[in-house]
């Protein structure tokens, strides 16, 4: 019945596209959506996730709220300057009201129960700070056996977006990211900014989405604040769909090309806090290290851009594939 998937998310405009991508894909068995603070506060990210599933007529998907702050160091910075005051360009009210109550007990409990009940390993796509996933691994030793892959949108090899060194999701909770990426409990795929920046979509792509029907029109209507921000970053009318790129890999394994390298997260309180240090040396060069047995992460480094953009548009517009 297709890829079994859980999305952990902080919607967020690009999260909205990622949730819709999974929710509208017939070959995806979307088992749950869990929420985390991040782009905006937890109450907003949770309500946004519920309403996005209602838009996609996926009230069968359980939603639970997770962490409202990072594991160790409080961090008050949110990304409402980019995603708008409610996380969806101030337009979340255009979405339908949730038709289903939140699952009580919280995100970690829902993640654990869905994973335990699954008859095959499940893919998790964390597209916000990694706090819930680190808490899951800490609270449920051995749960990694129930997880096929953790496909993470996060990190930056060349430069960050929140600081010179760090990408937003990893910078928001570096200790959690280090536990997930370097803890050795789960097979991780990291989809960093270096690749997602190359996968930006343009005004013509968005116009096709908007013209495709009520769901496409609603998704497009959530973009104005976000698109205005990225117009200045990109220098043309378009926007990044970071989280949708990661979910594309989660549901179509191999659509991104990856390289297996050790990745460590900088957790000090200096200017590099939240940086993802990928060891791009050859295995031979690494062999002389004190700890050559480092955990490997599959870092996404390339894709066929046109194919990816077409895949995203076809899935979001419901056109034949
Ligand atoms: C990531 O940060 C958030 O603002 C986006 O939703 C995405 O998950 C990009 O750095
Ligand atoms: Ca996100």
The CATH C-level class name:
Alpha Beta
Question: What's the number of structural domains?
Answer: 1
The N- to C-terminal Cα distance equals: 17 Å
Number of helical stretches of at least 4 residues: 14
| CATH domain fold name | Inosine-uridine Nucleoside N-ribohydrolase, Chain A
Number of strands: 11
What is the radius of gyration?
18 Å
Given as residue ranges, the uncertain stretches (5+ residues, pLDDT < 50) are: none
Summarize the structure in words.
- This protein is α/β, with parallel strands linked by helices and 321 residues long.
- The protein has a single domain, classed as Alpha-Beta Complex (Inosine-uridine Nucleoside N-ribohydrolase, Chain A), CATH 3.90.245.10.
- 38% of the residues lie in helices and 18% in strands.
- A 9-stranded mixed sheet has the order 3-2-1-4-5-6-11-9-10, with helices on both faces. Strands 7-8 form a two-stranded antiparallel sheet.
- Helix 2 links the parallel strand 2 and strand 3.
- Helix 9 crosses helix 10.
- It is globular, with a radius of gyration of 18 Å.
- The mean pLDDT is 95.
- The site of beta-D-ribofuranose (BDR) has 14 residues, from helix 1, helix 6 and helix 12.
